[in-house]
Amino acid sequence: MISVTPSLIVRSSLEEMLDSLQRKEEIKKPTDLPPALPARPASKARLPKRPVPAMFGVGDVVSPEAGDSRRQDFKGIGGGGGGFGRRKVLETAVCGESPYTMAAVHERRLAENGGAHLATPPPPSLHSGWDNSIDYFIKKQLRVWCLLQNGQWELGKIQSAAGGKASVTLLDGTVVVMSTEELLPANMEILDGVNNLVGLGYLNEPSVICNLQYRYARDVIYTMAGPVLLAINPFKDVSISGSDVITAYREKILDSPHVYAVADAAYSDMMRDGVNHSIIISGESGAGKSVTAKLAIEYLVGAGGEDSEIASKIHQMGCILEAFGNAKTSRNRNSSRFGKLIDIHYNAKGIICGAYIHTRKHFCF
Ligand SMILES: Nc1ncnc2c1ncn2[C@@H]1O[C@H](COP(=O)(O)OP(=O)(O)OP(=O)(O)O)[C@@H](O)[C@H]1O
Questions:
Q1: Which of 128, 160, 236, 286 has the most CB atoms around its CB within 10 Å?
Q2: Structural domain ending residue among the three candidates 139, 161, 189
Q3: Which of 216, 222, 229, 235 has most ligand 1 atoms within 8 Å of its beta carbon, as the pocket-test mutant?
Q4: ipTM of the complex
């Protein structure tokens, strides 16, 4: 006996509907779509999926005009750098030494040795999916990153490609012939200097480094990478701190990436949700951790009652700790030779009611 259950009848009609929708989609499909983005290299540093605070403006696009107004934000407070003009972009569009250079060098050496075994394992392929997109980049004359012989990445446009070789015109007009393996897709100019690296269409190394360099050249030392703030040591006064800037972040007049924005998010979330928050500051010696931590504390102390006795003790403890715990090294004239964990305690009204500084010795207020 054959029985037909209602569920089977429903499934079959659903299938028919899906088929007809699919057919309609295929008829409508435009023929000139850009190719899919090349696969990104697998990295242990891929960011966890966490919601990004709205204020960090994920995917903010920096048009020259928008860039200019942000520069005004900083400059209006006292700092500032050069203009956001196109000419400057071209001048700074050369990146430094990169691990990808090692990938290319390795491949070249392997070819020279006729595929002989090398001591180091080959790096993972950086170009999967990219070869298929080269025709599109030629047709639309889009920018690409070229890995030059000197190990630097430079922007250019592919004129023609065949047999794994491409003829590329660099920005200064020089034409170079290079392997397509030494090319990576570059982002459109409108994405130069984005606030948050997740806003980059192509998240390859030259694009990331040049985005940071673009901002750094304009004294914009902070950039978001998803929920993480990247800070680059300017080794000079870029005048983006102080009470005016703190007020601007507290009143949400400014929302560009800044350690004050991170501190503000921690304080606001703590007050809203009633849970503890931690800000982790890491980097190599001389990267600017201590200065960044001081700015975060300055903001947090200000938020919780600048005038209190505890706040003033927190300010003063820095000098004492540095006097006993810092030393001159080859990387930093005032290097902290100890780790710090600074707890700041707030009451239900958000006023500072205590602090605890953990080092090898403990200072309690
Ligand atoms: N935001 C900044 N603005 C201006 N100068 C800075 C900034 N951050 C760091 N610097 C400069 O860099 C120097 C080193 O910074 P800092 O002492 O914070 O590094 P660190 O990462 O704490 O180093 P270490 O791990 O060796 O203690 C500072 O003395 C200061 O001159």
A1: 286
A2: 189
A3: 235
A4: 0.98
